[in-house]
Design goal:
The complex is a heterodimer of chains A (295) and B (326). Chain A has 295 residues and is an alpha/beta fold. Chain A folds into three domains: 101 residues, Elongation Factor Tu (Ef-tu), domain 3, CATH 2.40.30; 128 residues, Rossmann fold (3-Layer(aba) Sandwich), CATH 3.40.50; 45 residues. Helix content of chain A is 18%, strand content 32%. A seven-stranded antiparallel beta sheet of chain A has the order 4-3-7-1-2-6-5. In chain A, strand 5 and strand 6 form a beta hairpin. Chain A is globular, with a radius of gyration of 19 Å. The mean pLDDT of chain A is 94. By secondary structure, chain B is α/β, with parallel strands linked by helices. Chain B has a single domain, classed as Alpha-Beta Barrel (TIM Barrel), CATH 3.20.20.70. Chain B is 32% helix and 17% strand. Chain B has an eight-stranded parallel beta sheet with strand order 3-14-13-10-9-8-7-4. Classes of the chains: A alpha/beta (295), B alpha/beta (326). The interface between A and B is medium-sized, with 29 and 35 residues. The structure holds flavin-adenine dinucleotide, flavin mononucleotide (FMN) and FE2/S2 (inorganic) cluster. FE2/S2 (inorganic) cluster binds next to loops of chain A. The site of FE2/S2 (inorganic) cluster has 13 residues of chain A, from loops.
Chain lengths: 295, 326
């Protein structure tokens, strides 16, 4: 499938819903009159302060990138979800937004996940606040009737920004436990570092469970988003097992539009003497084929 | 001119800008990146990322960190190089509809001369801006801090820049910026742009590591604005006014009020850098804001404002009286 590259714009949009899915996390929904075609993995560059307030605080001057965590079109316009974790001044400001407040966003930006070919299956792997693009991807893949299974992990139960239909299994079985994925008919395995929910361990332990049981893993495409050590570990396992894998990566971004050259990811470049070059995460990514990334 | 519509045009060397608001090198790529968001044809002028003889990968990440009211960058002049620029970037630039200055950086006088000469020979550029002030490559500051060396560099480049305007971009990381400004003007610069970034550093107190891999970098954004205005005033007073050389003021400009401050200090035009990241249309908003301001102050031409700051002792100083009838 062709990768969409709709022209980005700046939008000011009201917050129409907000919730606190778990400790340190927030989810807001904004409504825009219109929004170009976008695909999971693409992001918004969000102004995380009052547009005029910089003289007062000096904080969160630059926009902050956030994955599109869900997108719904209706007669009333386009609703977009942003799911985040509070880690600094920008995310703290977002967390304090109330319904009716306005948010200034620039997007859609970057290159998203590719959609598998007919007959392929998908294994979706998210760690922590890597959930939003994976959640939306699952919805989109299911609409194309792609079979999806999900592994989602966090440090502990109270840091899982997700609601459950039933307790996740601790024995490595995939079940329709997680509401966001069960709704799409996708079975899920949950991991927590401390074992407080699902399998004790990392998402890579979940991946080992999956690999032990998978019948034809070569027909599977793996999609991942999460902290870089997790992405690297998933990429390594996929390389060993010959699985095609895409990862949505994060970099500190100045512009989000390919002008500042700050967001580089080292990738293989067979045509170069050095064999490597820097790719811009905001333009060539944030989604990369993990086999191309020099981890 | 029509009564009531202020004249925003300014001259930088032989080029006339439709308004005094430009984009700053390294903050707006090669043009096409921001084209979906901002109507580039309405810019006073556009400045490209620094171009070098050979392509450069730039420094290892992390390359930027935000600091209070600003950011530190150590990109390391990552750019496509002169060949690729001429092949794949210039064709788009020719369609942009505003004057475009190609910013040039190098390691030696010979490199600068080669790149500047090829750019001057190519059609579609308004001129060259010499970056002699990049803090993020090993010898980047060399030319910008040594007046004798700078004079030599500018004189050599001037020989090959015969069609386009030659702007020299000064470093603020010097004891006496007037000395480098004078060297550039004496050697034939048509205009001076100032400032490039101030050297800065930020340290993570948990890990004890520098927040950018290069350790030091260049500080930009609103945090540097007062320092930049001071330097613009100094260069205007010591060098530019008497030499009749225009200054392009740069440093932390976010809105029309900031731009007017630079113009009053002595800048003929201004460049917007870091603020583009927040809103790529900032220069267009600034140009509109300046027009409104001129109307309110009853000033006919923006060029009438250049350097018009009055001394604190002067009185009375009703700004509206500085205007010419419209
Ligand atoms: C393409 C992309 C998509 C993203 N999607 C989401 C999302 O859906 N939900 C979410 O919560 N976060 C997401 N992030 C991360 C988010 O941008 C940062 O958490 C945010 O910028 C932090 O801003 P702050 O002012 O709160 O904290 P800051 O004070 O700016 O940073 C706090 C800490 O986080 C680190 N950090 C800041 N920005 C990034 C970054 N871009 N990548 C990695 N580490 C960073 C800083 O180094 C620092 O240690 C995404 C990042 C990218 C690049
Ligand atoms: C990320 C970044 C990259 C830059 N790259 C260049 C460059 O390649 N050449 C150059 O002359 N100046 C470069 N600059 C400096 C800007 O052109 C400008 O002089 C400086 O940022 C101050 O203006 P500002 O505060 O409006 O950003 C860069 C600045 C930033 C923030
Ligand atoms: S964030 Fe500026 S180039 Fe990617």
């Amino acid at each position: 499938m062709a990768v969409t590259h709709s022209a980005p714009s700046i939008y000011t949009a009201p917050v129409v819903a907000r919730r606190s899915p778990c400790r340190e996390h927030f989810e807001i929904t904004i409504r825009l009159p219109s929004f170009p075609d976008a695909v999971p993995g693409q992001f918004l560059n969000v102004l995380c302060r009052d547009a005029q307030s910089m003289d007062d605080t000096g904080a969160a001057m630059l926009r902050r990138p956030f994955s599109i965590g869900g997108l719904r079109r209706s007669a009333e316009g386009v609703e977009i979800d942003i799911l985040g974790r509070v880690v600094g001044p920008g995310t703290a400001w977002l967390n304090a937004l109330q319904v009716g407040d306005e948010l200034n966003v620039l997007g859609p930006l970057g290159r998203g996940f590719t959609i598998p070919n007919h007959g392929e299956r998908a294994l979706l792997i998210a760690g922590g606040v890597g959930l939003p693009p994976i959640r939306w991807l699952c919805e989109i893949l299911r609409k194309s009737a792609v079979f999806c299974e999900v592994i989602f992990g966090a440090q502990s139960r109270d840091l899982l920004p997700i609601s459950f239909r039933e307790p996740p299994k601790s024995d490595g079985a995939f079940t329709l436990c997680a509401e966001d994925f069960a709704r799409e008919g996708a079975a899920c395995l949950i991991t927590t570092d401390d074992g407080s929910c699902g399998v004790r361990g990392r998402v890579t332990d979940g991946l080992s469970h999956w690999l032990a049981n998978a019948e034809a893993p070569s027909n599977v495409r793996v999609y991942s988003c999460g902290p870089e050590p997790m992405l690297r570990a998933v990429a390594t396992i996929c390389a060993e097992r010959g699985l095609r894998c895409e990862a949505a990566m994060e970099r500190v971004m100045g512009c989000g539009m390919g002008t500042c050259q700050s967001c580089v990811v080292p990738v293989v470049a067979p045509d170069r003497a050095s064999g490597r070059r820097y790719a811009l995460c905001c333009r060539e990514g944030p989604v990369f084929e993990t086999a191309r990334v020099i981890w | 001119m029509i009564a009531g519509v202020p004249d925003l045009s300014v001259r930088i060397g032989r080029v006339t800008l439709r308004n005094p608001v430009m984009t700053a090198s390294g903050t707006c790529g090669y043009g096409e990146e921001y084209a979906p968001i901002a109507d580039l044809s309405k810019l006073g002028a556009f400045t490209t990322k620094s171009i070098t003889l050979h392509p450069r990968d730039g420094n290892p990440p992390a390359r930027i960190v935000e600091t209070h009211g600003g950011m530190i960058n150590a990109i390391g002049l990552a750019n496509v190089g002169i060949d690729e620029f001429l092949n794949s970037k210039l064709p788009y630039i020719r369609t942009m509809g505003c004057p475009v200055f190609a910013n040039v950086a190098g390691h030696s006088i010979d490199e600068y001369v080669q790149v500047a000469g090829r750019l001057d020979a190519a059609d579609g550029l308004a001129g060259i801006e010499l970056n002699v002030s990049c803090p993020n490559v090993a010898d980047g500051l060399m030319f910008g801090t040594d007046p004798a060396l700078l004079r030599e560099l500018v004189a050599q480049v001037r020989r090959v820049v015969t069609r386009g305007v030659l702007i020299v971009k000064l470093s603020p990381n010097v004891t006496d910026i007037s000395a480098t400004a004078r060297a550039a003007v004496d050697a034939g610069a048509d205009a001076l742009s100032l400032v490039n970034t101030f050297l800065g550093m930020a340290i993570d107190i948990e890990t004890w590591k520098p927040k950018i891999a290069n350790e030091s970098g260049g500080l930009s954004g609103p945090a540097i604005k007062p320092m930049a205005i001071h330097l613009v005033r100094k260069v205007w007073r010591d060098v530019a006014r008497n030499a009749g050389v225009p200054i392009v003021g740069i440093g932390g400009i976010r809105n029309w009020q900031d731009a007017v401050e630079f113009i009053l200090a002595g800048a003929t035009a201004v460049s917007v850098g870091t603020a583009l990241y927040v809103d790529p249309t900032t220069p267009l908003k600034i140009a509109d804001g300046i027009a409104e301001y001129l109307k309110r102050k009853n000033v006919v031409r923006v060029s009438d404002l250049v350097g018009r700051m009055v001394s604190a002792k002067e009185s009375p100083t009703p700004p509206s009286e500085t205007g010419v009838e419209g």
